[in-house]
């Protein structure tokens, strides 16, 4: 059994070292497992909720795409795409919006935080709250349920959203599944041992604290950021407390056991902070230098990135398009073609086999075709002078009475009394002819 892993990256910023260690690196490693079927995507519709700067959105999409590819995501194995290239996602989002309780969404942390802030400031509770922010969890549920993900690796702040996706999916299953699980119910995965990196000042590395180390800046930018790491004021020669220093924590996230032990011994032996920063720089340069070159090459060829992402979208849509078709069926958005007239005028959905399609010929006469489940033509009727006569003939064929089928050469005709009602196309050989006759009988067998 393969496990479907899915996660989205909101495209509002430039990836930093903390994103790399905490999310990107473990996701790429996980995607290589033999039983993994990974769906990683740029959540650019979500980005629009948080950011109204088009240039920033565009830059971020490009940088994040290049980052994942430069770090070795294999797009033959994983499915890598932009959310906004999958029109089935917003469509599913609407179907889910129609079953998601408003009360459920009222309880979403992100929305509640905005409301609390407004209330505290004496503003209208919903001041500045868009419907995008309010419905954020429904769009996220659509991302997840669209691909029937089993596991969704996320940060702690997103656990509630994955739980809402479960709730909404369950509700939909209950309402429309007729006992079937239309949606797989997802589970959030929090990687406990994954490092939360400290930033330059020791707090969690985060864009909002402006304490990040760039992932693919120039070597100089990397060096400058490392120079800004805050340390204590112990002089060269004085023993340093490795475990009490976030410079050491940063080093640990990228070093082997042996490297860590050696660095610890050096710090305790009085290594100068300047020299320690140099060691960290060397370590990171080793880890990221080659990937940075790949990154720069990718960024320089945005048209190639576009092709890669469009191929990823096409791959994702091979799943999304037919699945959304099933979901539309389930809620009652169905083609009128599949409605078959049965005696009594009552409409009834065809069994899997039969489908009558009536049409008017160029000369104004009325005809119909009978198509099998795969859409292949079994029968083309003769021309009828009026629609009523054509309807009566197609009804008679579905009445369940014994069929009069006569084969001739590699085709057959169907008769009602002494009138030939229609005939089949010519089949390639006798085997195909016999099979088509069998399908005809099946298609016109009385429905239980
Ligand atoms: N909301 C997520 C975040 O901010 C990004 C995201 C969007 C996502 N859709 C998703 C994550 C689906 C997991 C699954 O981190």
From TrEMBL:
Binding site for L-tryptophan: 143
Keywords, in A-Z order: Aminoacyl-tRNA synthetase, ATP-binding, Cytoplasm, Ligase, Nucleotide-binding, Protein biosynthesis
GO terms, biological process: tryptophanyl-tRNA aminoacylation
Enzyme class: ligase
Binding site for ATP: 10-12, 18-19, 155-157, 197, 204-208
Signal peptide positions on this chain: none
Subcellular location: Cytoplasm
Molecular-function annotations in GO: ATP binding; tryptophan-tRNA ligase activity
GO cellular component terms attached to this protein's record: cytosol
EC number annotated for this UniProt entry: 6.1.1.2
Top-level taxonomic group: Bacteria
UniProt xrefs under InterPro entries: aa-tRNA-synth_Ic (IPR002305), Rossmann-like_a/b/a_fold (IPR014729), Trp-tRNA-ligase (IPR002306), Trp-tRNA-ligase_bac-type (IPR024109), Trp-tRNA_synthetase (IPR050203), YegP-like_sf (IPR036913)
Residue positions of motif 'HIGH' region: 11-19
Motif residue range(s): 'KMSKS' region: 204-208
Catalytic reaction annotation: tRNA(Trp) + L-tryptophan + ATP = L-tryptophyl-tRNA(Trp) + AMP + diphosphate + H(+)
Its biological purpose: Catalyzes the attachment of tryptophan to tRNA(Trp).
Assembly and interaction partners: Homodimer.
Family: Belongs to the class-I aminoacyl-tRNA synthetase family.
NCBIfam families linked to this entry: PRK12284.1 (NF008923), trpS (TIGR00233)
Record protein name field: Tryptophan--tRNA ligase
Species this chain originates from: Aquipseudomonas alcaligenes (strain ATCC 14909 / DSM 50342 / CCUG 1425 / JCM 20561 / NBRC 14159 / NCIMB 9945 / NCTC 10367 / 1577)
Taxonomic lineage from the root: Bacteria, Pseudomonadati, Pseudomonadota, Gammaproteobacteria, Pseudomonadales
């Amino acid at each position: 059994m393969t496990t479907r892993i899915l996660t989205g990256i909101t495209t509002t910023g430039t990836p930093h070292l903390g994103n790399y260690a905490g999310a990107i690196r473990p996701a790429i490693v996980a995607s290589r497992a033999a039983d993994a079927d990974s769906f990683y995507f740029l959540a650019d519709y979500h980005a629009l909720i948080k950011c109204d700067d088009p240039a920033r959105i565009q830059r971020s999409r490009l940088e994040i795409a290049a980052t994942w590819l430069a770090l070795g995501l294999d797009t033959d194995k994983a499915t890598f795409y932009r959310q906004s290239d999958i029109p089935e996602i917003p469509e599913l989002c609407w179907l889910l919006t129609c079953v998601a309780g408003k009360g459920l969404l009222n309880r979403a942390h992100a929305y509640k935080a905005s409301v609390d802030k407004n209330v505290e400031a004496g503003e209208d509770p919903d001041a500045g709250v868009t419907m995008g922010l309010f419905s954020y969890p429904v769009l996220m549920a659509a991302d997840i349920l669209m691909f029937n993900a089993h596991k969704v690796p996320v940060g702690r702040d997103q656990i509630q959203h994955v739980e809402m996706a479960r709730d909404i999916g369950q509700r939909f299953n209950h309402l429309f599944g007729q006992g079937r699980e239309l949606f797989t119910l997802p589970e959030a995965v929090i990687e406990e041992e994954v490092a939360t990196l400290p930033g330059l000042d020791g707090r969690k590395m985060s864009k909002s604290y402006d304490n990040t180390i760039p992932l693919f800046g120039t070597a100089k930018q990397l060096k400058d950021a490392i120079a800004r790491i805050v340390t204590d004021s112990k002089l060269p020669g004085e023993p340093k407390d490795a475990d009490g220093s976030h410079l050491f924590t940063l080093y640990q996230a990228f070093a082997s056991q042996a490297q860590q032990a050696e660095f610890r011994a050096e710090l305790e032996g009085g290594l100068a902070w300047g020299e320690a920063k140099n060691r960290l720089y060397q370590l990171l340069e080793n880890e990221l230098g080659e990937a940075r070159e790949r990154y720069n090459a990718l960024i320089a060829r945005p048209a190639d990135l576009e092709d890669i992402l469009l191929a990823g979208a096409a791959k994702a849509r091979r799943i999304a398009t037919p699945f959304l078709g099933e979901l539309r069926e389930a809620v009652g958005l169905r083609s009128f073609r599949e409605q078959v007239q049965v005696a009594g005028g009552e409409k009834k959905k065809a069994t899997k086999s039969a489908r009558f399609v009536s049409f008017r010929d160029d000369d104004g006469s009325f005809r119909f075709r009978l198509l099998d489940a795969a859409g292949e033509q079994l029968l083309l009727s003769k021309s009828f002078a009026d629609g009523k006569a054509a309807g009566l003939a197609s009804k008679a064929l579905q009445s369940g009475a014994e069929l009069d089928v006569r084969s001739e050469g590699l085709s057959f005709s169907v008769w009602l009394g002494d009138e030939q009602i229609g005939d089949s196309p010519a089949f390639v050989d006798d085997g195909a002819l016999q099979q088509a006759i069998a399908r005809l009988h099946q298609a016109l067998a009385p429905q239980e």
